[in-house]
Amino acid sequence: MKDRPHIIYLHGFLSSPLSQKAQEMAAWMKQQGLQDYFHCPQLPMDPDAAGVLLQGLFFKLVHEDICIVGSSLGGFFATWAAETFACRAVLINPAVQPYTRINEYLGPQRNYQTGEIHMIDACFSEQLKAFERLPSQPERYWLLTQTGDEVLDYQLGVNYYSACRQTIIEGGDHGFVDFTQWLPEIWGFAQGK
Questions:
Q1: Rg (CA), the chain
Q2: CA distance 130 to 191
Q3: Rounded to the nearest 5 degrees, what angle is found at the Cα of 80, between the Cα atoms of 16 and 124?
Q4: pLDDT tens-digit series, residues 150-169
Q5: Which residues contact 27 (CB under 8 A, 6 or more apart)?
Q6: H or E element: which one contains 78?
């Protein structure tokens, strides 16, 4: 059905489609009978490869209405995708200018869900920088952030997306406490409501 948007969920750094939020969203979409409209790719660790994967996914869904839901580094890529493909984006505790923090992660890093080891090197930073976009159409964005995020400074997201719709929740954490309660409203936003 053309009137139903497709949701593309983008997980964060060293994460996967097995992450809690991705699983909760997949389950909720299935409960609504919308599982065919939910996509959660495993993003390659290499930023350029992640971009190629997303381009391919958008190409497959070229005639569909799409909303990206991105968490952490997935929020950074969601902004690039929203600007590149003119779609809506929901940003959950998004990473802002993540290339400034790559030095903290140089060397071998273990994926939180899969256990796979990824080698992070200095060129990762320059690759990420190439994906940075400012929101040119603020009405396409919704920032959902919690002040208790222990990994990222929530204020950076508040400032970066200052012209966009924002929901700032006191407390919480980087994993975004009570994510499931927001899923009906996220689905509404995806439909342009």
A1: 16
A2: 29
A3: 60
A4: 999 999 999 999 999 999 99
A5: none
A6: helix 73-85
At CA 11, angle to CA 73 and CA 186, rounded to 5?
100
Phi, psi for 100 (deg, rounded to 5): -75, -15
Which residue from 113, 135, 130, 156 is spatially nearest to 46, judged by alpha carbons?
Answer: 130
Q: Which residues of the chain have pLDDT under 50?
A: 1
pLDDT for position 193: 85
**For residue range 13-49, what is the model confidence (pLDDT) as tens digits?**
999 999 999 999 999 999 999 999 999 999 999 999 9
Looking only at the bridges linking them, the beta strands covering 141-146 and 88-92 are parallel
**6 and 39 in contact (C-beta within 8 Å)?**
yes
State how far the alpha carbon of 160 is from the alpha carbons of 34, 51, 71, 77, 164, in Å. Answer: 32, 21, 15, 14, 9
